[in-house]
Amino acid sequence: MAPASQIEHWLHLPSLRLLTGIADHGSLSAAARAVGMEQSNASRSLRTLERRLGYTLITRSTRGSTLTAEGILTVEWARDVFDSLGKLVAGAAALATPADEELAICASMTVAEHLVPGWLTAFQARMPTVKTALRIMNSQQVIEAITSGQAPLGFVETPDIPAHLQSQTAWTDQIVVVAATGHPWANRQQPLTEAELARTPLVEREKGSGTRAFLDRAIGRQRSRPIVELNSNAAICQSVIAGMGPAVLSRLAVEGALKDGRLLEIPYEQPLERQLTAIWKGAGPAGAARDFLDIAAGR
Fold first, then answer.
1. pLDDT digits (tens, 9 = 90+) for 9-48
2. In the 3-class helix/strand/coil scheme, how is 257-288 assigned residue by residue?
3. Which residue of 70, 76, 107, 279 could cross-link 112, Cys pair, CB 3.0 to 4.6 Å?
4. Topology of 100-299 in CATH?
5. 229 exposed, middle or buried (CB, 10 Å; 0-12, 13-18, 19+)?
6. In whole angstroms, what is the distance from residue 183 CA to residue 90 CA?
7. CA distances for 7 relative to 1, 47, 53, 133, 266, angstroms
8. What is the DSSP string of 55-100?
9. 28-35 and 39-53 helices, crossing angle to 10°
10. 175 Ramachandran zone, left/alpha/beta (phi>0; psi -120 to 50)
11. pLDDT one-digit tens code per residue, 143-194
12. What are the boundaries of each domain within the chain?
């Protein structure tokens, strides 16, 4: 562990938030807007962070700013920092709130990033006195949390639901193959085949994630080893944009990058769909958990 004095020297949370914003939003200007920082201050903040860390985080050009390989890794570490801080804040809030007024929910990455925010807004409007604590993890970790009773309700992307848990489909998700605009697949005329996808190294989620489990099952054959494994969709998108290689992700996770042209969707020989699933242990969810499930299921 680094000495406390060293951590305090370079750890500046707004700068780290800005850096993760570049991965999430695709540019320094968009990241600065997202964190409420003037772009001139944002540029200065990143240069200070680079100087303190001792390496370059972004490549600056007339076309904008993109994360370097070191920047991508730093974003992953920064996300871990924010996850830990989020746990600290959520835990402190839980300790200060009566247990019967809180609903704990576990959700895998894609569900938490793209679906849960809307569900939470609707839930808070329906149940304003109930405090919701969200834990974000991969699908296998969600299954373990529900199994051990850490939360009454979870949402996963994996098709592999253990028999001891109950489940219900919450969302039908489209899975797409994406690549950078300069990738050889960008100009292909014929849909990508399963055999081609299987023998191509990809930028992938880590083992235990629902996206990884779906891909392993959908291909149905021995696949090439990943180019790299990352534990967030945003990091994968940024890596693909940087030209590291293609990826297979939820359309929810890449929709923005597809719309603005930073990524290309590569036609595939057959539709890829999966069910995003609510899971719980024992009888059906009760109380606030039941209401949240109703909202997620569109009832």
1. 567 788 898 999 888 888 888 888 888 888 888 889 999 9
2. HHHCCCCEEECECCCCEEEEEEEEECCCCCHH
3. 107
4. D-Maltodextrin-Binding Protein; domain 2 (3.40.190)
5. middle
6. 42
7. 10, 17, 10, 28, 43
8. S--EEEETTEEEE-HHHHHHHHHHHHHHHHHHHHHHHHHHHHS-GG
9. 100
10. beta
11. 999 999 999 999 999 888 999 999 999 999 999 999 999 999 998 889 999 9
12. 4-79, 100-299
Give every CB contact of residue 165 below 8 A, 6+ residues apart in sequence.
Answer: 143, 146, 147, 279, 280, 281
| Residue from 140, 176, 132 nearest 296 by CA | 132
**Which amino acid makes up residue 188?**
R
Could you give the residue ranges of the DSSP H alpha helices within 97-223? 109-114, 116-126, 139-147, 194-198, 210-219
DSSP for residue 298: T
The matching CATH number, chosen from 2.60.40.790, 1.10.10.10, 3.40.190.10, 3.40.190.170, for 4-79 is 1.10.10.10
Using CA atoms, how far residue 279 sits from 85, 131, 163, in Å, is: 26, 20, 11
What is the spatial distance between Cα 179 and Cα 242, in angstroms, rounded to a whole number?
10
Report which secondary-structure segment, H or E, holds 35: helix 28-35
What is this structure's pTM? 0.63
Chain-centroid distance of CA 274 in Å reads 17
Q: Which two tokens stand for residue 203?
A: 């930028």
Q: Which long-range contacts (CB under 8 A, 24 or more apart) does 13-18 make?
A: 13/81, 13/85, 14/45, 15/45, 15/46, 15/48, 15/49, 16/49, 16/78, 16/81, 16/82, 17/78, 17/82, 18/42, 18/45, 18/46
Structure tokens at 281: 């242990």
Q: In degrees rounded to 5, what are phi and psi of residue 108? A: -75, 170
Query: Phi and psi dihedrals of 155, rounded to 5?
Result: -130, 130
Q: For residues 206 and 35, give the distance between their C-alpha atoms in angstroms, rounded to a whole number.
A: 28
